[in-house]
Amino acid sequence: MADGLTVLKKYQTIIDIFKNSPDRTLTAYDERLSESLNLSTKQIGRLLDDLVILYDNIVVLDKKIDRKTAYKMIKPTDLFTEKLKQSDEIGWFFQMAGEMDPEIFKAMENYTNENKNIFLFKNSPFEDISTIEQRDTFKNLKSAVENREYRKIVFYDKVIKNAKCLKLIFMDGNWYIAFVDDEEKLRFGRISFIKKVEYSDKISFQKNSVTKYLDFIKNNLQNSMTIFDKDSKKALIKATPQIAKYFKKDMKKFYPSQKFIEELEDGSILFSLNYTQELEILPFIQRWLPDLVILEPTSLKDTYLKKLEKTIKNHSN
Questions:
Q1: What is the pLDDT of residue 19?
Q2: Cα-based distances in Å from 132 to 15, 100, 244
Q3: Which of 80-94, 117-131, 244-258 has the lowest mean pLDDT?
């Protein structure tokens, strides 16, 4: 999909002309389309047909105009906004849209809906794989995941000779490859920390050999610090009234294991989080400093307090 962005620009050109057309109606013979796209009537017709398939608000009219098939935009729409709403796998849409080209996010900021800016990307999901070398790494790993193949993954500080590549995961603001190492342990390797990816001595593996890992990734993974095959603990946490609104019952969860417990009289919220190791949730609690209070367990609370004491000491020095 080397010219994917070009195709999207053509679609956007048609969308813009739709918006400025009487009754938002066009035919493939419209002069503005031929001048802007520099395509034949037949090619323009194909693009219009594509938009009819992709978007419910662009339809073919039953009645032709001057014996020509007519297309109508039922309501104003922004191409990318509509696509994002329809996509179940946003990360993969980004990949397909720009072939991992971070420039597409800058371009998206220029698209508008009724002259209002929709997008602002301060960071790109592909920020850490923007170089040619890292793009090749990403593609190599994607192929390994698709075909259930082994790879030799060379990180800057270690080498995994026979990695079973399971999933490419975007979490914690970075891309990771989930793989099973030579000791049959589930690992998460940050792609920007990979020096190169090579073919392994082994070729492919059966899906049933990694089912338990895939199930864990799907149902139990919270972030890159979640440990496979380790019993989780439960933390009881209080959100103070200052930030309580973010932790109310109907708000979007920050962690899959997050469970609302109750709202206290002073407006505080009690909720719980499961974790397999302290590093899985402590950074999150620290980000809300000082408004998340660890109530249980004592061991987690003590670890957190020691970190705070060290922080105070470092600042004092």
A1: 83
A2: 32, 10, 44
A3: 80-94
Task: Give pLDDT tens digits for 181-239.
Answer: 999 999 999 988 999 999 999 999 999 999 999 999 989 999 999 999 899 999 999 99
Candidates 67, 12, 20; CA nearest to 37 is 12
What DSSP letter does each residue of 18-31 carry, written as one string? HHTSGGGEEETT-H
Cβ neighbors of 198 (< 8 A, separation 6 or more) are 151, 152, 154
pLDDT at 116: 39
Query: Which of 1.20.140.10, 2.60.120.260, 2.40.30.10, 1.10.10.10 would CATH assign to domain 4-117?
Result: 1.10.10.10
pTM of the model: 0.60
Q: What is the pLDDT of residue 245?
A: 93
Tell me which of 269 and 64 has the higher pLDDT. 269
Torsion of CA 52, 57, 61, 65, to 10 degrees: -90
Q: Could you give the CA distance from residue 84 to residue 240 in angstroms, rounded to a whole number?
A: 34
Query: Could you tell me which CATH number the domain at 129-219 has?
Result: 2.30.30.100
Whether the domain at 4-117 and the domain at 129-219 fall into the same CATH topology:
no
* Domain spans of the chain, in order of start: 4-117, 129-219, 233-316
Please give the Cα distance from 256 to 280 (Å, whole number): 12
> Is pLDDT at 251 greater than 80 in this prediction?
yes
pLDDT for 131? 64
194-204 and 186-190 strand pairing: unpaired
For residues 194 and 155, the answer to whether their CB atoms sit within 8 Å is: yes
DSSP 206-242: -GGGSHHHHHHHHHT--STTPPTT---EEEEEEE-TT
Q: How far apart are CA 280 and CA 226, in angstroms?
A: 6
